[in-house]
Amino acid sequence: MSDNPSSPLLGSSDRPISKHSQHDDDHEITPLLSRSDSTPRYDGTEDDGQGRLPSPAATSLRSLQNGHGSAKSPKPKRRWPTFIAISILGLVAIAILTGAFLAPAAVEAYAKEALVIEPTNLSIDSFTATGVRARVQANVRMDASRVNNKDVRNIGRFGTWIAREIETKESEVQVYLPELGNILLGTATVPRVVVDIRNGHTTGIDFFTDLEPGNIEGIRQVANDWLEGRLHKLRVLGKANVGLKSGLISLGTQSISESLEFEGQSLYRNTLPSIPAYNITRLNFREVPISLTGRRGMAADVSLSVVNSYPVKFTVPPLGYDILVPNCGVDDPYIRLADATTGTINIEPNSEVDVEVGGIVRQLPKPLVNACPDSKPSPLDALLGHYIKGKDTTIYVRGSEAPNGDTPEWITKIISSVTVPVPFPGRTFDNLIKNFSLTDTHFSLPDLGAEPGTDEENPQISGKVLVIANLPKEMNFGINVTGVQAHAEVYYKNKKLGNLNLHKSAAKSERIEPEDGEAASLKIESEIKNAPLEITDERVFSDVIQAIIFGGSGVMLNVKALVDVTVSTVLGELVIKKLPAEGVIPVKPISTGGDFSTLKPKVGDLRILSTTKTSLVIEARVNFTNPTLYTAQVPFINIHVLNNGSILGEATARSIKVVHGNNTNILVQATWDPSQRGDEKAQKIGRELLSQYISGYNTTLTFRIHRDSIPYQPKIGEALGRFPIEMPTPKLSNPGDSNDTPKFLDDATFHLLSSTADFTIHSPLQSSTIFIENINATALYNHTEPVGKINYDLPFKVPPGTSKSPKLPVDWSFDSVGYEKIREALGGSLKLDAKGTVKVRLGQWTETIWYVGSGIGASVRL
């Protein structure tokens, strides 16, 4: 408590002060709600520093002393934190001076201009059943040099020199709001006061006064009008009847009145206070029992930090509050969410004040979680939506029954009739997701029967999602995630690939307790099924495919998502919507070697379904190995088959299920039609490929996806089409045949006497008969020495499987070394080579190809 006469009664800041400044009974708690510039918020942010202004009480008193002030000088900025105390002092001093002179008009002018009151301390001694007992300390003096009018100054100095001292009897001061129905704001009882009124003499006064609230309903209405922004101007009028005497001479009773006018924020006038700022330094949520039956609720422990920058001291008794949140509409009543209490708060002058608040949420009211009309989010969705985005939300605080029976009833009545909006700082959830992984991944491509505009027209992903999420340090209660739903954006190297829509799916969670001082985390497992992936940039998709196929090391896809999380708590099940989350999905390569050798494709069981003069429609069973960890569902896919840049045909597969490891008997339908599918060179290239393939050469085929490969996804088809895949031509094999090299001609038998030969022929077809239209071939010994020629133009058939050809006429080369070797091998065998052209027919399709064979086992008979 300061004894310095120049010390202001109330330190000031340019920050807004509490609404309680409107009530004479609430002056003691006004300083609590100014922002602390040095106290950190619970979310780690800090406020900017603010410079201090002169004491609002001091400037208000100076305005009383100077009247309306000079026209040339602007009026100082004034506030209203302790108006009743100021009114008491001012009215008493004016009454003393007015009663001391025979010229009331001059005395009143002298009193307003010469009077200097410097409050030094205001404290609340105690709260009473009807009001507040306050202690007022101040220095009072007269300064004649402040009076502009010479006659008034001379009269004043002469009169005060004669009177010397003035004594006031005990009196009562009433404060009214004249423009608001003359509502009685409050009353104050002022005890006997003696003041030296001579010019330049200072009197220190120190007294207790009882302050009582007036019309509580009127005070409540004024407070609500101010909080709701309807109160732009307020005039306060103080009145008192003061009994005076000087020495032994009674000066009678004087009626004194004085008014102050308050407006909205202005540099030169008194201003209405606004809701003050504060810092939340700690926030903690935990479970607590709320009944003997074991029912539990949610408790919130909050620590607030404010700075009392005024020289006031008092103790706030325990108080109770209702915590309210907005409803769907602005005109709908607020929803009561929790009840809160504060303990006894000791306020020291010019010091930081810590306030501990405890709240309990017993249940979630139905209006809070029910959707608003017109499919708008529920009030809880709106509240949490602002909070998790880091935006300040507004909650409302209304007084309720005090937790302590010693709290005066009049305080409870006032605070319970006023609802105060309180900004609540949001909390950003950056780096919430520590780890995000997708396992047992299964891909599904669109089906031809998919309806346009539905999820089925997009590629779909299924798999198991594993998320490790940080738990905010405020959450110290049990939580179980039972469902997740998300809309995610997928990026590759900071470029957007597409959108992934994760439908609502069941989930389970497990709390992981912290170690080494780290925050607790939550392990969430969920299984997604058929989540559609919309490719938005085919170029980025091409880059991903290229990296997967040819990169050899896989890719990392970044996922940014807004997640709706269904959580189960002691308050019941609720949905936290649009929770931001980020993660990384590693995608392993298809082949670490940059090619498709690990696929090990093999074709068997060929069937000819139909033919034309230029085409074959073939059905085959394909076996291959899936070396990746991924599985896939392919309802339909069509791929062009090329060689040397020309399209020779196309292959179509339907309803394929690709599993891990070996995949067998995959049904593929292919069309061979170089003349119709390809360019002008295609037919020649096709004939050459067939000849090389039948002759056992190492040949390759190129498979390329095109615009219409995948139903409803031309962009994906075009993107994948940039990466034609060249693979070795699959070896044809018969069931049970372990020989990877096809040999169509085998085990020849030469008959010397009849000059004929027959061959064992292996047909790769299982159900169709091949017809040999003509043969023009030469048998060779040691690759170069002719043995004989076969020129046969009568058709014969080659049934499925293994068969014997008819005896074909041989035109021997009698003068060659080869023929001599044939004769020497009579009754035995030798190895021969063969080359020539063969015209084959399959249904309506015919083609002439060349054939080269070596190491054919030939038996020689008579």
Rough outline: rod-shaped
Supply the number of structural domains. 5
What gap, in angstroms, lies between the N and C termini? Answer: 138 Å
* Strand tally: 45
Which percent band covers the strand fraction? over 45%
- Fraction of residues in helices? 10-25%
Q: What's the total helix number? A: 13
| Largest β sheet strand count, sense and barrel closure | 15 strands, mixed
Radius of gyration: 50 Å
Provide structural commentary.
There is one protein chain. The chain has 862 residues and is α+β, with helices and mostly antiparallel strands. It has 5 domains: 53-271, no CATH class; 279-424, Immunoglobulin-like (Sandwich), CATH 2.60.40; 433-587, no CATH class; 597-733, Sandwich (Immunoglobulin-like), CATH 2.60.40; 745-861, Sandwich (Immunoglobulin-like). The chain is 16% helix and 48% strand. The strands form 4 sheets. The protein has a 15-stranded mixed β-sheet that branches. Helix 2 (83-100) crosses helix 3 and helix 5 (216-227) runs parallel beside helix 8 (409-416). It is rod-shaped and about 170 Å long. The relative contact order is 0.07. It comes from Lachnellula hyalina.
Question: How would you summarize the topology of this molecule?
Answer:
Layout: H1 56-66, H2 83-100, H3 104-114, E1 115-127, E2 132-142, H4 150-163, E3 165-168, E4 171-177, E5 183-190, E6 193-196, E7 202-213, H5 216-227, E8 233-246, E9 249-263, E10 270-271, E11 279-289, E12 296-308, E13 312-316, E14 319-325, E15 335-342, E16 345-347, E17 351-361, H6 366-369, H7 379-388, E18 393-400, H8 409-416, E19 419-424, E20 433-444, E21 460-470, E22 475-476, E23 480-492, E24 495-512, E25 521-535, H9 538-551, E26 555-569, E27 572-587, E28 602-611, E29 616-626, E30 631-643, E31 646-658, E32 661-672, H10 674-677, H11 682-694, E33 700-705, H12 714-720, E34 725-728, E35 732-733, E36 745-751, E37 756-763, E38 770-781, E39 785-792, E40 796-798, E41 801-804, E42 808-809, E43 811-812, H13 817-824, E44 829-842, E45 845-861
Parallel strand pairs: 1-13, 9-10, 11-22, 20-30, 28-35, 36-45
Antiparallel strand pairs: 1-2, 2-7, 3-6, 3-8, 4-5, 4-8, 5-7, 8-9, 11-12, 12-17, 13-16, 14-15, 14-18, 15-17, 18-19, 20-21, 21-25, 23-24, 23-26, 24-25, 26-27, 28-29, 29-32, 30-31, 30-33, 31-32, 33-34, 36-37, 37-41, 37-42, 38-39, 38-40, 38-44, 39-43, 44-45
Keywords: Membrane, Transmembrane, Transmembrane helix
Protein name: Pre-rRNA processing protein
Domain Tag1-like fifth Ig-like: 738-850
